[in-house]
Specification:
539 residues, mainly alpha, Glycerol uptake facilitator protein, four-stranded parallel β-sheet
C-alpha cells in the first residue's frame, strides 16, 4: 500500500474530525435545543459511535488521531514525527471549526427559538446555556444552571483535574487498544475506543461537559464567538477555558499514554526475565542450526559503513552533459559516506537499494541500462532540465567552457533531491538494525520448532513443558515489536510477523496437547505470514 502524503494525512484528519464533531456536537445540539434524547447516556453513546465511524473512515490514512492531545501523546511516546504535529493539529481544528459552522447553519432556527423561550440575550451573562451546544463550560449548564451559585459547585482546579483525568483514561485506552498486541481484533478497535469515550463522558460530562479534545472545544467555541456570543464564548464567563479545555487534555493524554508505556515496559522486563531464566536452565537443550530456506533466509543487519544510496551517472561518452554530471556526482559523493557511485552493471545485485540515476543528455543511458538489468531507480535527475530551470543554459554559451560552474549548480540540486532518499534509507537502515536481534531470536525459536516431531496424542510432561516454554518465548518476542514503529512500507509485513509469533504460540499449545491438526495448521500460518517481512529484510 502506498503511503499517504502529509497533505493526504491532514485531509484525513480534517475529515475525521469533521465526522466526529458532526455526530458529537450535533447530538448536543439535538439534545439541548430539541430535547430529542432521554438522558446523558444517549448523547455519550452517539459521541462514541461518531468517534468509531471517524476512525473507520480515516484510520488507514492518517492513524485517526482526531485530537491534538492524542497527536502530542503519539509524538512523546510513539515517535510520531515532530514536523507533522502542527499540520495535524491545524487540520483537526479546521475540521472542527468547519463542521461547527455547518451545525450552526442547520440548527440556527432552533437556537433562536431556544434563546427566546429561555429569555437569553446572546453574549450576555447566562447565555452560555445556549452557547454550550458548541463550546463547553464548567459545571454543565444544562444540569446546574449558570451564575455564581452554579460556579461554586465546580472549581477551576476541579475542572482541570476532571478533563486531565478523563483524557488520561482515553489516551491510555487508545494506546492499549491500538497496540499490535492489543486485547481486541484490529477491526473492533474503533468500536472499543468509542465505547471507552462514551463511559468517560458519562462520568466527566456533569462537571465539564467532557471536552477531552482541544480541537473539539476550540473549533466550535470559535464559531460561537463569531456568531454573537463574544466573551461568553472566549474567554468564557469564568475564564479558564484554555487551562481546562486545551491544556488539561494535553497533559492528561501525555500522562495516560505514559502509564500505558510504563505498563508495557513492565511486560517487556518480565519477558526478558523469563528468557534469562530459560537460558540459565540446565535442562535447556541447544537449539539446532537453522538452515537457509525460502521461509527463513539468512539475515544480517547492514554495517554503518554500508552505502545507503547508489548514484549512477551516465556512461563516459565525451559529451559535455556527461562530464558535468560525473563532476557533480563526484562533488556530492565525496561529502557523504552513505553515498556510493556505481556503473549500471554494478547494480545488478542491488535491485532493492536506493538508486539515483543522473541523466547527462536526452539519451539517458544510465536509466536505460538500469531498466534492462531490472533495477528501478528511486529518483532520476536530468542535468539539462535542472540547469535550464536555473537559467544556466543559454544560447551561444558553450557548456564545455563552464563545466565546473555547471557541475556545482547541478550538485546543489542533486543534494536537494537526495535528502528525501537519504532520509528514507536512514529509516530503513535503522529498522533493519532494530529487527536484527529480533530475527535472530526468532530463528532460534523457529529452528527448535521445526526440529520437533509431529505430536501423536501422547506427549511426555517434561517435553510438553519445554515446548510450552518456546511458546512463552514467542509471546515475549511478540511484545518486543511494541518498542519501535516500522517504516510505512513495512507496516503490514511487520504486523504479519507479529501475527506469526502468535501462530507459533498457538502451535506449541497444540503440540503440548498432542493435537496434530492444530500444530500443523498454525505452523503453516506462521510460515505464510513471515515471508513478506523476511524477504524485504533480506533485500
Amino acid at each position: 500500500m502506498r503511503q499517504a502524503t502529509l497533505r493526504g494525512q491532514c485531509a484525513a484528519e480534517f475529515i475525521g474530525t469533521f465526522i466526529l464533531v458532526f455526530f458529537g456536537v450535533g447530538s448536543v445540539n439535538a439534545a439541548v435545543l430539541a430535547g430529542v434524547t432521554q438522558g446523558l447516556w444517549q448523547v455519550a453513546a452517539i459521541w462514541g459511535v461518531g468517534v468509531a465511524l471517524a476512525i473507520y473512515a480515516t484510520g488507514a490514512i492518517s492513524g485517526a488521531h482526531l485530537n491534538p492531545a492524542i497527536t502530542v501523546a503519539m509524538a512523546v511516546w510513539r515517535g510520531f514525527p515532530l514536523r507533522k504535529i502542527g499540520p495535524y493539529i491545524l487540520a483537526q481544528l479546521a475540521g472542527a471549526f468547519c463542521c461547527s459552522l455547518l451545525l450552526f447553519g442547520l440548527f440556527h432556527g432552533l437556537v433562536v427559538h431556544y434563546e427566546a423561550v429561555h429569555h437569553l440575550v446572546r453574549g450576555a451573562p447566562g447565555s452560555e446555556l445556549a452557547a454550550m451546544v458548541f463550546g463547553e463550560y464548567f459545571p454543565n449548564p444544562a444540569m446546574f444552571g449558570t451564575g455564581p451559585e452554579a460556579y461554586q459547585q465546580v472549581a477551576l482546579i476541579t475542572a482541570f483535574l476532571a478533563e486531565a483525568i478523563g483524557t488520561a483514561f482515553l489516551a491510555c485506552f487508545v494506546f492499549t487498544l491500538s497496540a499490535p498486541r492489543g486485547p481486541v481484533a484490529s477491526r473492533a478497535v474503533p468500536l472499543f475506543i468509542g465505547l471507552a469515550l462514551a463511559v468517560i463522558i458519562m462520568i466527566i460530562a456533569p462537571l465539564t461537559q467532557a471536552g477531552l479534545n482541544p480541537a473539539r472545544d476550540l473549533g466550535p467555541r470559535l464559531v460561537a464567538y463569531l456568531c454573537g456570543w463574544g466573551k461568553i464564548a472566549i474567554p468564557g464567563p469564568r475564564g479558564g477555558f484554555f487551562v481546562v479545555y486545551i491544556l488539561a487534555p494535553i497533559v492528561g493524554a501525555v500522562l495516560g499514554s505514559g502509564v500505558y508505556q510504563w505498563l508495557s515496559r513492565g511486560l517487556r522486563a518480565r519477558a526478558a526475565a523469563e528468557e534469562a531464566q530459560e537460558a540459565a536452565s540446565p535442562r535447556r537443550s541447544p537449539a539446532p542450526a537453522v538452515e537457509r530456506s525460502e521461509v527463513m533466509p539468512e539475515y544480517a543487519a547492514p554495517t554503518p559503513e554500508e552505502p545507503a544510496v547508489i548514484l549512477v551517472p551516465c556512461a563516459h561518452t565525451g559529451r559535455a552533459g556527461c562530464r558535468i554530471v560525473r563532476r557533480a556526482v563526484e562533488l556530492v559523493s565525496g561529502e557523504n559516506p552513505e553515498i556510493a557511485v556505481a556503473a549500471p552493471e554494478e547494480c545488478r545485485q542491488s535491485a532493492k537499494s536506493f538508486i539515483v540515476a543522473v541523466d547527462g543528455s536526452s539519451a539517458c543511458e544510465a536509466i536505460g541500462e538500469l531498466r534492462q538489468l531490472g533495477v528501478k531507480p528511486a529518483q532520476v535527475v536530468s542535468a539539462p532540465a535542472v540547469l535550464a530551470a536555473k537559467g544556466l543554459l543559454r544560447a551561444g554559451v558553450k557548456p564545455q567552457n563552464r563545466i565546473e560552474a555547471l557541475a556545482q549548480a547541478l550538485a546543489e540540486s542533486l543534494r536537494e533531491s537526495l535528502s528525501a532518499v537519504l532520509e528514507e534509507a536512514r529509516v530503513r537502515r535503522e529498522y533493519r538494525a532494530q529487527m536484527a536481534p529480533i530475527v535472530e531470536r526468532f530463528q532460534a525459536i523457529w529452528g527448535r520448532l521445526e526440529g520437533l516431531p509431529e505430536p501423536n496424542g501422547t506427549v511426555e510432561h517434561a517435553e510438553a513443558q519445554k515446548v510450552e516454554l518456546l511458546g512463552r518465548r514467542a509471546r515475549n518476542l511478540f511484545v518486543k515489536f511494541d518498542e519501535f514503529l516500522p517504516p510505512a512500507e513495512w507496516s503490514q509485513p511487520h504486523d504479519l510477523f507479529q501475527d506469526a509469533l502468535l501462530c507459533i504460540a498457538y502451535a506449541t499449545e497444540g503440540w503440548a496437547a498432542g493435537d496434530r491438526e492444530r500444530w500443523a495448521v498454525h505452523m503453516e500460518k506462521a510460515r505464510a505470514q513471515i515471508r513478506p517481512l523476511l524477504r524485504r529484510l533480506d533485500g
